[in-house]
Queue: 3 jobs
Job 1
Amino acid sequence: MISIRLKTIASLIDYNSSVIDIGTDHAYLPIYLYLHNITKNITATDVSSNVLKISLKNLQKFNLENKIKLIKSDGFKNIIQRYDIAVVAGMGTYNIIKILNKSDIPNTLILQSNNNHYLLRLHLNSLGYKIEKEIAIYEDNHYYIIIKYVKESEVLTTEELLFGKSNNLKYYLYLKNKYQILYERAKDQKFLDYISILNKIIEKIPE
Ligand SMILES: C[S@@+](CC[C@H](N)C(=O)[O-])C[C@H]1O[C@@H](n2cnc3c(N)ncnc32)[C@H](O)[C@@H]1O
């Protein structure tokens, strides 16, 4: 059983598109995509040789070692083929930004950063990518933010840069509570500003 997080990422993949999963780790996402007939045109990569040994073992369990390409690569460095979609998930924003620092990256990106979503949204906006869909999911006591980007410019408000476009009331209430606790600890005005922005966002969400 794969995680809700990876299933949500899989739900954003267009059928029969060519996909590269950068930093695949156990190769759970590529295996899921293949077995669920979402696409069979998949490359899984990782920077770590040790990790790739585990990825290969997992592919072998499903007889997929000749169906899903496995490549050792730091980001796109060893990648020649062009893909419709790149998935970069389960890493920090600085690493994701480093990986995307290349001229011919795919027109569709599915990104799940573990931190600094403001910087990620700001950076992708500056690269000319538009948030097509943003989903906040709760799993294992944690909110994960998954964003599907397409190559198209868009203007984002400060509110959208800070808190995204998930429209998930429970997530915004969770953030409000988090900033309330942080404010009580640090008495930093910026947390009150965040709470006030979140209140405005929450008001606009239909019940
Ligand atoms: C926490 S795992 C996430 C695995 C999977 N993407 C997921 O979301 O469940 C991060 C993986 O990214 C790999 N990684 C980190 N930096 C990378 C890079 N620059 N290029 C390729 N893989 C990288 C690590 O070796 C590790 O296997």
Note: The domain at 4-154 is CATH 3.40.50.150 (Rossmann fold).
Job 2
Amino acid sequence: MKFIHLSDLHLGKSVNEFSLMKDQEYILQEILGVIEKESADAVLIAGDIYDRAVPSEEAVRLFDEFLTTLSEMGKKVFIISGNHDSDERLNYGSRLFLAKDIFISGKYKGELTRVDTRDAYGVLHVWLMPYIKASHVAHYYPKEDTSTYDAAIRTVIEKCEINREERNIILVHQFVAGSNGTPELSGSENAVLNIGTIDKISADSFADFDYVALGHIHSAQCVGRETIRYAGSPLKYSLNQREILSEKSVPVITMEEKGKVEVKLFPLKPMREVRRIKGELKNLIENAVDTDDYIYATLTNEAFQFDAMARLREVYPNIMKMDYDNTTTRAIQESDADFGTEEKSFRELVEAFYQLLNGRLPNEKEWELIEAEAKEVGIIE
Ligand SMILES: [Mn+2]
């Protein structure tokens, strides 16, 4: 059987107030193209279908369209919830969808759903692990160790009766790490990842599975072995430097007899690229290319440029962010690094910043103004 692995669609997402609806619509079409070209039998979607627990109408419509097309193409679809999805809403209609070979697991109820499929090589089990918190597991198994996510997920898997002679695939939306270190983040995963702390799960827990379709981390990568893999989000959802330079792709998994699994990556080309440009304002404007792209511009001018964002926007209508990289910003960054901001008082922080910008401390009159402003916006009382 041939599977397409997707995750972290985050339908309805905006980046820096730009709705990516059109880009998402486009990329789903591209993915349908890969599915058709590869004659895949099934699609695995490892969580974070939507960006929010209450998705927009547009986002729901887009996913409805995607599912309907997959169903019309005769594909099986396996879906789990991610931490961004509402488990109950994702479960809506799931029993009716079974008749169309669409299998959704939105909520953990003490055991994992197992779907058995068949091909020329025999039976193949697809296990669905919706997004689970350790506390959910504790609720069903109060006597088991659920003190960490690792222990909790181990418990969940121990409760599955896995036939190791047969082929098994599992969909998981968690923070899974191999012995070779923690996975690299793309910067758009939000505050859900407490790196290195309680929610890290060892890849060893999945030793009995022939393929582990992971979701949660938006950078495509494998964890421990080729067949434990984050598909990554289909689009770049952050302006993080590494994410901007990364390439999005879709893993296509071919499973033959037990022990024979092949993974191929198909690069995904977005409708609009996310690009970082850097230079003097004048140069960026005069030498503009691919102006429809999402742009993160960094100005190297030493002097403040009046109305720079508006001037850039005239050329790059989809500019998302602008900042400066010059002597001043670098000095601020350096002093930030040894600031120890948490231990400093408001006054100390402002003084240091003021000193850096103006080469002197603020006088009494200026202090009055700064304090009045800070009170107004609620920084100090
Ligand atoms: Mn996600």
Note: The mean pLDDT is 91.
Job 3
Amino acid sequence: MQWSYAPSRSPAAKVQRRVVQWRRACNAEIAPDRPVVTFTFDDFPKSALNGADALEKHGGRGGFYACTSMMGMRSPVMGEMFDAATLADLRQRGHEIGAHSHTHLDCARARLEKVERDIGENLVALSESGHHETVSAFAFPYGETSYAAKRWVGDVFTTGRGVLPGVNSGEVDRSQLRAVELGSSTMHRRRALAALKSCVETNGWLFFFTHDVGPSPSSYGAPFGLIDELAQRAVDAGAVLVAPTLGAVLCGVSD
Ligand SMILES: [Zn+2]
């Protein structure tokens, strides 16, 4: 496992990212009865279970996107990664396991055949570790994607989640849903609260994403208290806290 890869920051890559974001692969209309909030955890470290605890405190469930080459490994930054027992535990508690590629592939730079093979491997590895449910949710590693990858992900999964910030409302691309990052800084908290407010006002679908969860999370992670606070505020504002595929159903994205 290569823990330190970073997507290209070249001007060409930045332009490409904008073009891909603008070009919708799978149009969908978000129209829930009540605002929908979906907390998600990527990769994912075992400490993300703390996030599951925080959601359950408020009657909510979340989504956990599993990068299977990290299974049973120890990340130098995020600590112990999920294993088969973690998957079983989450499943039993009503959370959703999503796909996140096998090798944490940069889907913007890889050819489509490689994207297909890698995500296929991801699904096989999940099944071999005892996860036999249909996997309907996907999150792009680094949020990186291409138009072709979005089309394919839209065929295979109900939802594809990116990392472009914002609330999903009105017409969206269900293969590149927006998501707001959770972290430890006051800026993260401020942005998350603003997004939640906008989600409630627009009757939209808000994804939050992070990685590890704990009292002193890594720079990729979020504190338990922030998830607890946001979940409480969301419920108080009349939103439902659900996993990605139930969110898609409630928003009318899938049936
Ligand atoms: Zn990831």
Note: The chain is about 35% helix and 20% strand.
